[in-house]
Amino acid sequence: MNLSFTDEQNLLRDSVSKFCGSDYDFETRMKSVNSDSGHNPEHWKLFAELGWLAIPFSEDLGGLDGGDVDLSLMFEEFGKSIVVEPYLANVVLSGGVLKRSDLENKTDLIEHLITGEKQISLANYEPQKGFNLDNVDCEISEDGSVNGLKTTVLNAPNADFFLVFGKHQTGHAFALISKDAKGSKVTTYKTYDGFVSGDLHLENCKADAVFSKADAVDILHQAILEGIICVSSEAIGAMETCYKLTIEYTQQREQFGQSLSKFQALQHRMVDMFMETEFSKSFLLKVLATDDENERTKLIYGLKNQIAKAGKYVGEEAVQLHGGMGVTEEMSVGHYLKRLLVITNLFGSSDYFLDKYIES
Amino acid sequence: MDLNFSKEDLEFRDEVREFLDKEYPKHIKEKMNNGDELSREEVVEWHKAVAKKGWMGHSWPVEHGGTGWDATKVYIYLRELALAGCPTFVPFGLQMVAPVIWTFGSEEQKKKFLPRILNFDDWWCQGYSEPGSGSDLASLKCKAVREGDEYVLNGQKTWTTLGQHADWIFVLVRTDDSGKKQEGITFILVDMKTPGIEVKPIITLDGDHEVNEVWFDNVRVPAENVVGEEGQGWTYAKFLLFHERSSIAGAPNMRRVLNSLKIRAKNTYHTDKPLSEDKNFQSKVAQFELDLDALEMTELRGLAAMREGKSPGAESSLLKIKGTELQQRLSTIAVEMAGHEGMPYGGPYGFSDVEVAATKSDQLSAPKYLNFRKVTIYGGTNEIQKNIIAKAVLGI
Fold first, then answer.
1. Looking at the complex, does the CB of residue A1 fall below 8 Å from at least one CB of chain B?
2. Concatenated DSSP letters for B340-391?
């Protein structure tokens, strides 16, 4: 058994941590949040230059051959500063689908992703269709025209291409749609964590390509599983910042002639926050260290259930212990809660994943 | 002991329903059903409709214009209002400052303020908390110095709910800092139009402007606006807090929200069967209902005690804790129900100009959840309430 990281992994963590520490204070983040694109294009360029966007792709696709552990380390650091750059949407979800697909020109598209020149969004969820991945109405016809409505398409306003998942004669497939394709319309909005998202309306929209007709559901599933590892890692980073911010705040804030951190009842609450964070880390490690594919899938479902509960709990406690200041836009702690709440609800609820865990 | 309503009670219930049917303004009802925010004018319009009927003083003594209802009637009344989805009454005048005025105020103050509160001619707000004085309220520093027939106020209050709409504010000020911190606090009524007052918005996590900072810069207030005696404000402040705490549990309102959630669950799909048939969801809702029943009965016990002339005491802290915890739990159920479709968000980012695929109720779930983070903090944090119960109820 070996639970330590490689030197390369430690270097990666250090470099992400350094970026977040020096270039990503809360004010900078909020400036990005309040901009139209919802992130800082300069940061995105930097991510590409540092090779971060190439991590989870194999060398023959121009990538760095990294794996889930590398992504996880990175996202934990992102979570500490609740980084809003669209890594999940582009690299993990869209990249995750592309790299497993049989799309002919996928190497070109992945190259554009890696250089940061193009952005790609995965469009799979639909209104009132729930969390089961194969439950979609969107239709991709034989001649490549696509009809349907996709919702919560992460990073939609910045996307140059969409990977649309839909029903196909063969079962399911993906359609590659350019952003300005005739018959497509994007309604963009912010989500409550400050990220950007959108709805994608498709009416007789001609796809550039239709691909992975044989195993689209499986590919989507694999990409989402990777996404769950990433957002869970992100949540753990956010949880760590939450308890640290809370300790700091309660040490500074004086009521009844002493700092709040001296009250035993509050100390215990912070210990609980810390413990939830540590046990979440342990569970994540178990997932990362499990090789057997079926066992790993089951554990990822469990991870999502655990993180949904722990993340929400730690975020809520952090706000509560900050008192009135915790509920203001001005303080960072509430923004951590918002992101943790989104992570709780992304890809499915904690109940949903508990059932998936039980069933598998 | 009997939980059934008498024939007379049932008639009264019908009377309330009839009133709501006829006098609850339709455009306000529509906005409330849609979850839209009301304008100041609409809030006033609603209160005036109730005042016209003579039903504003449901918790007031008859001599000051109260309805004189027994506990059951008050309960029926508030329950019907909540079930109909009416806006909650702005409590700062009606439920907070009014009892202080009729208990500790001068005859002139009673004559001047109480009828206007009962008729909602004045909108009141609260000047209690300060940036450095939250849970430890008695450490407040906002200062008032007597100069002839006036007090001159300097300092800052914060978390003043709906202060941007208010005509009057009741303020706790320090008139003496030589003794214990609870001494030297004075309770004073201030016209918001007085020169030197500035109201600055605080934006909360849900993106809303509900609370404010209120700044006082050499604000001159007539000495006759002091309630009771100078330096005795802490006694009045605590009295008021008991009233505040007993009024924010809101069981009937939660009952209405829960009912609408249950209806929506029939058409909400997380998997291939509706959420209403999902075991996890069912047990969450059932556990919530059981707790809500217990809360409601606790509210009723408090109401009965009040009608027997007992002032709501430290027991109101029980209601505050449980009521706010349940409010948060309910908002969590709604957020979980919305899932990723609750992610599109108005708030400070705004999307009002676009048509989003997610339903309005899904989109409102997160702002509501975020807004409700405050309820376990305001009116004295739930941690402080537990201290009060430990000390005043359990005697430890």
1. no
2. GGG-B--TTT--TTS--SS-HHHHHHHHHHHHGGGGGTTTS-HHHHHHHIII
